[in-house]
Design a protein that fits this description.
single chain, 303 residues, mainly alpha, 12 helices, globular, binds fe (ii) ion
Length: 303
């Protein structure tokens, strides 16, 4: 066994880690627009040739705006998926049902928190930033797939959140403290979600032969490509937001070059950092070494 996760210990740990929205976002708290919101390893705005320091900072903040919205968006499909997974077995294992309902309830709280942070951003930023969506359409597209494929996407997302905070945010003192605390509190609860995702994936993979696992993996990749199209569109929208906020008109060549680099930055943020997370890879390997190898082959394109 490559892990010791169980519903009882996850439930106990999540009760200890639980917080209230007002603890994370007090009524009078403001984002500090003199600072970056996103760590450079995810934003990749600090090294963009042709942008001034101030333009790099504004694009970093636009990436922060995008992060708030994309997380709100993915959590809108995680919530119904977890409820649907819990629903067929409401009797028997009390720890299981409590842990899954608690997971769904925390995700509903996160959706609310990301929306409130989004409003705080809008209140302080000079011009509008547009985003892909709407979330209901994205959720409908993702949820029409094989539940094992969706569970793998969710497992990927929740380990990815862990990585964002631990590898990039925790020790970066240059970031806006309010944004950092959002990522910290989110990380605290997501740590338990990723364990529950692992248990969900194992349940859904149980009894499947190699062909059935491989077909779920096809669908996982299909969802990944769908999300990647959205990320490409989002990278272009971020540059338009930069132009609006700074009043600078980028030439077509500048736009093409910046879009390509920023699309890759979004790929790493939402796809590569999850696909290559060691815990995600370990779960894949446990259900099928061939599945692990397939993902290892495609992952470099998203890093
Ligand atoms: Fe969350
Ligand atoms: Fe979560």
């Amino acid at each position: 066994m490559y892990h010791d996760y169980n519903f009882g210990s996850v439930l106990a740990a999540s009760s200890r880690a639980a917080w209230q929205i007002d603890d994370v976002l007090p009524a009078d708290a403001r984002l500090d627009f003199a600072r970056p919101f996103m760590p450079e390893s995810l934003a990749r705005t600090g090294a963009l040739d042709g942008l001034s320091r101030n333009e790099q900072l504004i694009l970093n903040q636009v990436r922060g705006h995008e992060y708030l919205v994309i997380f709100g968006l993915v959590e809108e499909f995680i919530l119904p998926f977890v409820l649907d997974h819990a629903r067929p077995q409401l009797n028997g294992d009390d720890a299981r049902i409590r842990a899954l309902l608690n997971f769904a309830s925390e995700e509903a709280k996160h959706i609310d928190l990301f929306k409130r942070f989004h409003q705080r951003f809008v209140d302080g930023f000079s011009t509008p930033c547009h985003v892909i969506g709407p979330p209901e359409a994205v959720a409908a597209e993702v949820l029409r797939h094989d539940p094992l494929a969706v569970a793998l996407v969710i497992l990927h997302i929740e380990w990815m959140t862990q990585r964002h905070y631990v590898d990039s945010v925790r020790d970066d003192g240059s970031l806006d403290p309010l944004f950092t605390s959002l990522l910290k509190y989110h990380w605290m609860e997501e740590a338990q979600h990723a364990k529950l995702d692992t248990l969900m994936v194992e349940t859904l993979a149980e009894g499947r032969d190699e062909a059935a696992i491989s077909s779920a993996l096809d669908e996982y990749l299909e969802i990944g490509m769908f999300l990647d199209e959205g990320l490409k569109a989002q990278a272009a929208m971020n540059l338009e937001a930069l132009e609006r906020a700074t009043g600078r008109a980028l030439s077509d060549e500048e736009k093409t070059a910046l879009s390509e680099k920023q699309h890759q930055a979004l790929r790493w943020t939402y796809l590569g950092s999850g696909m290559t997370h060691p815990k995600f890879v370990a779960t894949l390997a446990a259900i099928s070494p061939a599945a692990r190898d397939r993902i290892a082959n495609v992952a470099p394109a998203f890093c």
